[in-house]
Amino acid sequence: MMDVAARPAEAEPDLSAIAAEAAGEHAVGRPAVYVYEAPVRICHWVNAFTIIMLMVTGYLIGTPLPSVEGEASANFVMGYIRFAHFAAGQVLAVFFLARILWAFVGNHHSRQIFYLPVHRKHFWKEVLHEIRWYAFLEREPKMYVGHNPLARTAMFTGFTLFVAFMIVTGFALYSEGAGIDSWQHKLFGWVFAIWPNSQDVHTWHHLGMWALVVFVMVHIYAAVREDVMSRQSIISSMISGERQFRD
Amino acid sequence: MGAATETFYSVIRRQGITRRSFHKFCSLTATSLGLGPLAASRIANALETKPRVPVIWMHGLECTCCSESFIRSAHPLVKDAVLSMISLDYDDTIMAAAGHQAEAILEETRAKHKGQYILAVEGNPPLNEGGMFCIDGGKPFVEKLKMMAEDAMAIIAWGACASWGCVQAAKPNPTQATPIDKVIPNKPIIKVPGCPPIAEVMTGTVTFITTFGKLPELDRQGRPKMFYSQRIHDKCYRRSHFDAGQFVEEWDDEAARKGYCLYKMGCKGPTTYNACSTVRWNGGVSFPIQSGHGCIGCSEDGFWDKGSFYDRLTNIKQFGIEKNADQIGMVAAGAVGAAVAAHAAVTAVKRLAGKRKDAHRTS
What we know:
The complex is a heterodimer of chains A (about 250) and B (about 375).
Chain A: H1 13-23, E1 32-34, H2 38-62, H3 77-105, H4 121-134, H5 149-178, H6 183-188, H7 191-194, H8 198-229, H9 237-240, E2 242-244
Antiparallel strand pairs in A: 1-2
Chain B: H1 8-14, H2 19-32, H3 39-49, E1 53-59, H4 65-70, H5 78-85, E2 86-91, H6 99-112, E3 118-122, E4 135-136, E5 139-140, H7 141-150, E6 154-158, H8 159-163, H9 180-183, E7 189-192, H10 199-212, H11 225-228, H12 239-244, H13 254-258, H14 276-279, E8 315-316, E9 323-324, H15 325-362
Helix pairs in contact in B: 1-5, 2-3
C-alpha cells in the first residue's frame, strides 16, 4: 500500500516517541514500528494478484484472443478465461470484505484507507503539503508512520472506492448469467436500475479496469520512489509489516 | 366490436370452432407461455367464464412495426387474439371506424369499463412544444394518452418506443420523445420492448392478462419475466463457439461460414434481454444471429446511442470524439505512465543535484 514516510503525525501520539527517535539524528540502530498486521499484508498481496489476474482476463473478455481451431466441443478457451475472471473476482470480494472486517479489529492504521477526515482543515493542509512535495516545491516530506494524507486519499479513492465499484458492477454483470433468481441478482441487481442497459454497466466496468490500471501504476511508482527517496522502508514493510528507519 | 360481456369461449364457438380445438389452443398457449401441465385447464376455465378484456390500442410516435409483428403471431394466431380473446375496441390503424365515430369509442370505453380496460400503447408521446410533434385526432397525443391512462387497469408499452424511447428519443431527441413510464407514473406498466417485439411475446403477454385477469410477473425493468429474464446470449445456439473461443473475425470469413460466435462483430446478445434465441421469429423460423448477423440489442434502453452495431466495445461520447473504454483507458494509462517517467526523471536529477550540493557543503 502506498505508505510514503514515517515521521510522527499529530494523530499518533503513542508512536511519536519511537518515531521521533527514529527521525532524530541520535537514533541508535534501526528502530522499527509495526504498522501492517498480518491480515492486512495477506489481503494486500491477495488483492494485488487477483487484481492483476482480473485485469488480464477482463481485457481478454472484452477483446478475445484469436479464434481457436477445431470442434467447439474440444475447446473451452473463453470458458476458462471467464472462469478465471469470475473466480478471481469472488476471491477479491471475499478478501475485500475480510479487509473491511479487519478495519474494526485491527490497529488504527488498518482503518486509514476506509475513510478520509475531510471535515478537518488540517487534513487538507497536509494533503496540499504532500502535493507540493511531489511537485518538487518542498525540500523535505513530512513523515508519517502510516499513510501520509495524500497517499491516504489515493488509497481511499484508487483502491477502496474503485475496487468496491468493480465488485458491485462485477457481481451485477455476473448475475446476468446466474439468473434473476440468484443471490447475486437480489443483492446487486439494483445496478441495472441505474443503467437499464447492461451494455452501459459493461462499459463502466471496463473503464473501472483502466482506472485501476492507472492507480496501480501510480501506487507502484510512489512506493518505489519513496522506498528510494525517503528514509524508511516501504516495499519490505508490506512483507514484514515493520516500518524500518534508515537514518 | 362486440359486447365486452361475452366470453372468449362463446365467441369462438359462434365462429364454428370445436371444443376440441379450443382445448388444443389452450394447451398450445400454456406451452408457449412456459406454464405447467395444469395451466391448460385453468386457461380453458378462464376463457369459458371470464368476460373478454376490452383493449384500447393507441399509436404515438412510432413506425407501426409492433402492429406488423403482432399480426404475424402464430401461437396464438393473432386472429384469435384480436377477434376472440380480447375485445379490441379501438386501434386507429386497423379498425374499420374512422373520424368522430372512432374517437367516440374512446369515451365510451372509458365510461363503460372504467378501471377494467387495458391500454396498449405503441410508440411514445413527444413532449416538446406542448406535444405538437404528434397530433392524433386533432389533439396532442400526450393528452389523449393521459386521458385514457387515467381509467385504465394497466398499460402495455409496446416496443422499444413506448418502453425506452427508441430512435425518436435517440440523441439529441429534438421532439423530446418520452417513454410511457416517464409520462404515466401512477399506473402499472408492462414493458414489452423490442423493435419490434416478437409476435408471440406480444400475444403471449395479452393472453396472460386476459386469461389470468392479472399482470404477468415483471422484472426490475417492468418487463414480463417469462420472456425477458434471460439474455439472447444465454440461450444462443452459437454459445458453444463463444465458450470455445471461436469467433467470426470478419464478415464472410471461414468462421462466419462455420457459424462461429458473432461476439467480435459487435453482437449485442450478451447484453440484450429478449426471447429471440428461444421463441425466434416468423413462427420460429429464424432470428438475426441464425441468419449470420449479430444482435443489435433492439430491446435495450437507448440502443441507438451506444455506437456502432458492429463494435464490441461501446463508444463513449462524453469525451467529444467517439472513443471506447479501451482507447480512453490506454490514453489515460499512457499519459500517467509518461507522467510517472517524467516525475521519476526529475526526482533523479534533483537527487543527484542535492547530493552534489551536500557533498560540496561537507567538504
